[in-house]
Every structure is written in C-alpha cells, then in structure tokens.
Amino acid sequence: MNSHAAFETHPIQKIDCARSITLGMAELQPDGISEQWFLKLGGDIHWSLIAQAMGQKQAVFEDVYGREVYAAFCATSIELSPQTKLLAKNVEITSSLYHVSHHQIGSVHKILLAKQEIASLLMISTFVSHGEDKANTSIVRNKYMPSLSLDMAPQELLTLAEHARTTARVNTNPEMKCDRNQDYTPCRSLDFNAVGLLYFPSFSKFTERFEDQIQKTTQPLKRREVVYLGNLDIGASINLASSGSDVFIHRDDGKLIAKASSKRCAMPES
Predict the structure, then answer these.
(1) What CA–CA distance (Å, rounded) separates 45 from 107?
(2) Which domains occur in the chain, in start order?
(3) Which of 105, 157, 195, 235 has the most crowded CB, counting CB atoms within 10 A?
(4) pLDDT one-digit tens code per residue, 5-31
(5) So what's the pLDDT on residue 7?
(6) How far is CA 151 from the centre of its chain?
(7) What are the DSSP E strand ranges found in 23-154?
C-alpha cells in the first residue's frame, strides 16, 4: 500500500451503495432484525466505503509512517421496528458516507422492506492507532486523518456527534448511584475483533445481556445509542452499572469506556 498517497486530499465525492438480501436466521432474532447482525454489517460497509473514498480496494489503513490505523467508532445509534414475520423476506440495504467534522466520518444505513424503512443505523468514526506500548487502553487518535471531501452529514448524524462530545466531556463518577451493577470478563474469541480490539458490537451485546439478566427486561429494543470512550485489553474485566435507561461500562481500572442508552417497545408489531 502507498501509505502517503492514501492520505492525500481527494476531490469531493458522493460515496454510497445499495444491496438486496433475503433475511434468514443470521439476520434475525425473535422480534425482527438482529441488532448484532446489523451493527456488524454496518461496520463492514462503513469501513469499505471509507476505503472506496480513499481509492483503496481494502479497508486496511496506514499512516504516513506505516503504522496501522483503525477507523474506530465514536458513536452508533440503531433504531428497529420490531416485527415477527421477516423470515425469507427480501429487503434493500442502503448506505451513505458523510463528512461530520475534521476528525470524524459518519454513515447512515437503512433497511427497506417493500420501500418502507424497518431499521436504521447511524455510525460515526475517527482514526486511531495503538501507542508505543501496543495496549488497547492507550489507543489514541491518529492525526494523519485522510482529507476526504464528502457530502456534509445530515442533521441526525450531527446531533449524534454532539451527544457523543457531551458524554465525553462529562466527568462520570464511578461511585455514582446506580440501580444495579454486574462484573463481566469479555471472551477473547467472541468479543474481540481481528486486530485484538474489543469489537464495537460487543458493547451493545453486554448491555442487552445486562438488561436481560439483571433488569429482567422483556420488551423488544426500539432504539439504542452507544458512545464509545475507550477500549479494553484481552483478559481484563468490565463493570456494567445502570442508572435509569442508561448503562455505563467501566474498565477494571475505573475508566468509563462506553455509555449505552436504550429505548424499548411495549409490544412487537405483528
């Protein structure tokens, strides 16, 4: 890869894609679209669209010094329309890439059934690299961000970015009053990605498991916003604590690494 060329200024461009699929067991759960599947698919599309905008065939990034660079997510917001009769249905998935800020790129993904939206996903990422110690706890923003001239983000992405900035500025006290809490050690083979980072959908999975087991939630998910504030080394533990509709995920060193806010439906739609 020519890493210097990858970070040149590119002309303004519209980056999007669309695909049709048939929903099967991998894409669904009892109440409709699988949150985990949609997050993973959206992540892969987001990274591939960035590579496309940079003129690359693969979503593998390096800075001008040849260091690995990752398009790490700052925030995601997923919205679902729970329904039980989606198996074997044909849907269209549309995705578009946008400029959010000098350091952030966003994408919007929609799932359409008979031209009606049944799920959407907003994603915002920034470029990061490991520090000299290679630890996931010392991931830092890489200043060699590619100068991509993309369409300006719609208001929904800008609002999500502002929510993420506000969350990052708030000094959340680990001693805060919580409804319930639970300790958990993520699994190397299930919760971490190919480069050894705690995979971003895992934060949603931890939250859903916590709300199911500790809060005894039975209502299907309508919307979940996650702000990602840090990462975790393999073998380390996390603590999940709830306060109202928010779940806070702390590392075992006390640092807040994510905040998830969920909204649920009263009943699934038939």
Answers:
(1) 9
(2) 3-264 (3.10.129.10)
(3) 105
(4) 444 555 678 999 999 999 999 999 999
(5) 46
(6) 21
(7) 28-29, 32-33, 61-62, 68-80, 90-101, 104-113, 116-129, 140-141
3-state secondary structure of 163: helix
CA distances from 63 to 1, 3, 177 (A): 10, 6, 42
Buried b (16+ CB within 10 A) or exposed e, 17-53: eeeeeebeeebbbebbbbbbbbbbbbbebbbbbbbbb
How far CA 8 is from CA of 63, 83, 166, in Å, comes to 11, 45, 31
Distance of CA 26 to the CA centre of its chain: 19
* pLDDT of 146: 64
Count the residues in the chain. 270
Helix (H, G, I), strand (E, B) or coil at 32: strand
Query: Would you state the torsion angle of the CA atoms of residues 129, 135, 137, 142, taken in this order, to the nearest 10 degrees?
Result: -10
Per-residue pLDDT tens over the stretch 188-211? 999 999 999 999 999 999 999 999
Confidence (pTM): 0.91
- Report the pLDDT value the prediction gives residue 180, as an integer from 0 to 100: 83
